[in-house]
Amino acid sequence: MQRVRTSIRRKLIFATLTPLCVAILLCWLIGSLLITDRIFRQAQQKVIGDLKLARKVYQDEVNHLASIVRVAGMTPSMADHLVSSSQPLPEKALQQLLKEEQLSFLNVIDNSGVVHYRAANPVKKGDRLDGDPLVARALKGEMTGGAQIYSAERLAAENRSLAETAQTALRATPRARTVSNGSERRGLMLVAVAPLLTSDGRVAGALQAGFMLNGDSRVVDTITRIVFDKDGGAATVFLGDVRIATNVRDSSGDRATGTLMSDEVARVVLSQGKLWSDRAFVLSNWFISAYEPISDPSGAVIGALYVGMPEQPLLDLRKNLNLIFAAVLLFVAVIGVTLSTWIGSRLARPLRALAEAARRMASGERIEPILVRSDDEVGLLADEFNAMTREVSTLNQTLELKVVERTHQLEEKSQQLLTAQKELAKSERLAGLGMLAAGVAHEINNPLAVIRGNAELLQVAIAADSEDREEVDAIVEEAIRIGRIVSNLRVFSRGGMQRVSRFSLGALLDGILDQIGHQIPLERYRIVRDYWGKDMMLEGDEDQLRQVFTNLIVNGLQAMPEGGDLVVDAVLDAAAERICVTICDQGGGIRGEDMGRLFTPFFSTKPQGTGLGLAVSYGIVSDHGGEINVNSSPGNGATFTVLLPIHQEQRVSSDAVHIKPGEVQ
Known about the structure:
Layout: H1 8-72, H2 76-84, H3 91-100, E1 105-110, E2 115-118, H4 133-139, E3 144-150, H5 152-158, H6 162-166, E4 168-169, E5 183-184, E6 187-197, E7 203-212, H7 218-227, E8 234-239, E9 242-246, H8 263-271, E10 276-282, E11 285-295, E12 301-310, H9 312-362, H10 377-461, H11 469-492, E13 499-504, H12 505-515, E14 525-529, E15 537-541, H13 542-558, E16 564-573, E17 578-584, H14 592-595, H15 613-623, E18 627-632, E19 638-645, E20 657-658
Parallel strand pairs: 13-20, 14-16
Antiparallel strand pairs: 1-2, 1-7, 3-6, 4-5, 6-7, 8-9, 8-12, 10-11, 11-12, 13-15, 16-17, 17-19, 18-19
């Protein structure tokens, strides 16, 4: 009986989806918690910042009230009136100030604390206010201000309409203290008092102004407009735990004045005088809230300032984010299921093919290679299975490739050996040429001297107008030319002895350029001496270096048969302790195929050249431990650069002779 087997595809799908689903679930839970925590934490931090801004708006109202009484108190007529009654009291100005600034009351008090004049209730005067802490401090010369609670009686005395305006009916509020039918008859006032000073600085009295917050929505609306703009936040001013000014709306859409602070918040803010920053139940909904106590001048907590934003929009935002996050995770799960199914089917197919091939092999049938396009263990198994059928046929191909590879490597080695042999032969030829040049120069020099001497005697003996004089002159000229060639051969073979001395490079170049006109007419040329002003001292064989620079300058001039600019410059490289001399012409340039043979002996591009000038110059510069380089292209002229060390102590050969300044040899 054949055993029932579970498909590898199903096993793979189960093994893939199980951890995937667990990971998705954990990601959703962790992400939801992190999102919720981040949203509410940022909201709470925002509300705390909003409370600080609201406090600043509230304090600005106090400061504004203080500035009003401070400026009004500077009027000298009020102080003079209180002292001597010589000046009338500016009642109209006080009435106008009361109206324009929308003050609740404005009082003039003498230095004994007696009310001298009430702008909001002129008939009421003569009562004493020296028990008021703000008035008492002002009569001592101090500008004061702050929040105070006024009783209904005092409100009526200050302004007959204040008592009626301040009365607020209390309304039952969820999560707040229990109240029966009643009302709040006190008023929360913002008060500022400024001293009235005489011209000699004495306190003649005080100017007192007040602004009642009960039922006045200007402060809370200003806070809401500045802090929340259009975000749906709310602000409230509490007298005790009663909302006396607020833009929190009740169920009917009216301002919720008369409702109460939640009991939980009241215990912290009003009883303990601490800041509250947390979720709070406001009227009928939860708000992200912040409360700050309001204290009177004596430090007693008399109310609170509140800002907050509804919690429901944040809950909706959290819900939407969770839904989006869940949708993304669900989409990822669907993709995972699809990929797992596809990968499982792809893995199972070659395994079935291998099982079928093994069955056919057991029955003796011919096996075709199994094609598996995967880089895993299944592909490796299929490759090994196919390798058994290909091993013999690929062995011969591998051996043939090895033979071809080794043959190619042998040819490369042979080519490298031939190149090395050519370089060695070239070096040997140059060495032999140097020895031959030295021998030829030595053997030719003596008979050449005899020939030249006799030719010069013959030249002297023959008259200048004789027909034979031209032939004799040619013999002398060619003998001189042979002498130059022999001299160059000696230098090329490095048989000469260096006479090292210290000399001025600028003077050497000036001497060459001043005398070069004897060899080449300079009418067509403009020689630019950029080295002027750079006095540089150099050690070396002055005569040999003169030969090098003369050769390069003559070559530069001869490269410009139609004339042009020849620029000679020298630069001192103090860091490298060497001098760089450049000779630049505007000739036809040097061809690329000639660049490699430029310093080769007996190579010349001039019809009358010997081909030894640049080779000899190269040898002299090398003997001095320097370098000579050329930069040129056809049609763009050529620039020869000679790099020479400043000192020759470690550079010269053993047969060099050092000449000290002033020594003659």
